[in-house]
UniProtKB/TrEMBL annotation:
Domain of life: Eukaryota
Descriptive protein name: Vesicle transport protein SEC20
Primary subcellular site in the record, as a coarse category: endoplasmic reticulum
Listed InterPro entries: Sec20, Sec20_C
UniProt-annotated location(s): Endoplasmic reticulum membrane
Transmembrane stretches, start-end: 214-232
Family: Belongs to the SEC20 family.
Upper classification of the organism: Eukaryota, Viridiplantae, Streptophyta, Embryophyta, Tracheophyta
Residue ranges of every copy of the Sec20 C-terminal domain listed in the record: 144-235
Bilayer topology term: Single-pass type IV membrane protein
GO cellular component terms given for this protein: endoplasmic reticulum membrane; SNARE complex
GO molecular function annotations of the record: SNAP receptor activity
Keyword Transmembrane helix: yes
Length: 277
């Protein structure tokens, strides 16, 4: 079992304990005033209500914590189960809150009835009435002081519960921000590797571009050299042809030898073929 599931189980146990305590407080409030001590039990009612309100505040805090933990459970099935439990707790909280309200109404009716009986007893006169008044005054003062201290402690505890809820909310926000930062870091690492691969591809393309340029330059140079060679050869042949024709026309070469003339004509024909090529 992971940490989140263990925290949910502990929270369930804490919820059951708090619900049991709240139900005990509700029963005490509902029975308040039934013993016939109207004034004393009326003074004790705020203390009981304060304890009940503390239980309700704890239940609200547990609902909030369960809602946060349910979203962090490892499997989708557990997440759905946790969210369903949150709804069940909300319904149970509403029922307990309504039960506390009804118990207060019943307690007020009981206290009112008991106070009426005490008033009738006090107005009846006699020694019992005198002793009763003195006891009521002493107990009323002590109860009032105790109730004042209890109320102060209850307010302090309520403030501490609110601070705990705010701290839990802050921690949840920090956890969410941490998860977002981790996600951003992982995305950055992915982009960084992609950029590294892209940089490598660009370097390869640049090297290939340089090689292609060198190949083109060498090819162009060879082509130009071939063209120059062909042109130079062609110019030489044409020059030789012109010189021979000029020599024949000027009579420098005798035209009486038939064999020589035949050879000369073959040479001129060959030059003409080369010229045509």
């Amino acid at each position: 079992m992971d940490e989140v599931s263990l925290a949910v189980e502990n929270l369930k146990k804490e919820w059951d304990q708090t619900v049991s305590q709240l139900q005990d407080r509700i029963r005490e409030i509902e029975n308040c005033g039934k013993s016939g001590k109207g004034t004393e039990e009326a003074n004790a009612l705020p203390r009981l209500n304060g304890a009940a309100q503390d239980c309700l505040a704890s239940l609200r805090s547990m609902q909030f914590r369960l809602d946060l933990l349910a979203q962090q459970l490892p499997t989708m099935e557990e997440v759905q189960s946790g969210q369903a439990l949150v709804e069940i707790w909300k319904d149970q909280y509403q029922k307990l809150h309504m039960g506390l309200r009804n118990a207060n109404l019943q307690a007020k009716a009981n206290i009112k009835k008991a106070a009426q009986e005490e008033r009738e007893l006090l107005l009846g006169g006699g020694e019992e009435s005198t002793v009763r008044r003195r006891n009521l005054q002493t107990k009323s003062g002590m109860t009032s002081a105790a109730e004042s201290i209890t109320e102060s402690l209850r307010r302090t505890r309520q403030m501490m519960v609110q601070e705990v809820e705010r701290s839990a909310s802050t921690l949840a926000t920090v956890d969410e921000s941490t998860s977002v930062l981790k996600k951003a870091e992982s995305e950055y690492k992915g982009h960084r590797s992609l950029l590294s691969r892209t940089r490598g591809l660009l370097s390869t393309m640049k090297r290939q571009d340089v090689i292609d340029r060198i190949i083109l330059a060498v090819g162009l140079l060879i082509f130009l050299m071939a063209v120059l060679y062909v042109v130079s050869k062609r110019v030489g042949v044409l020059t030789l042809q012109r010189k021979i024709v000029a020599a024949i026309k000027s009579g420098s070469i005798p035209n009486k030898d038939p064999i020589g003339n035949a050879a000369l004509n073959q040479g001129i024909a060959a030059l003409n073929v080369i010229d045509e090529l």
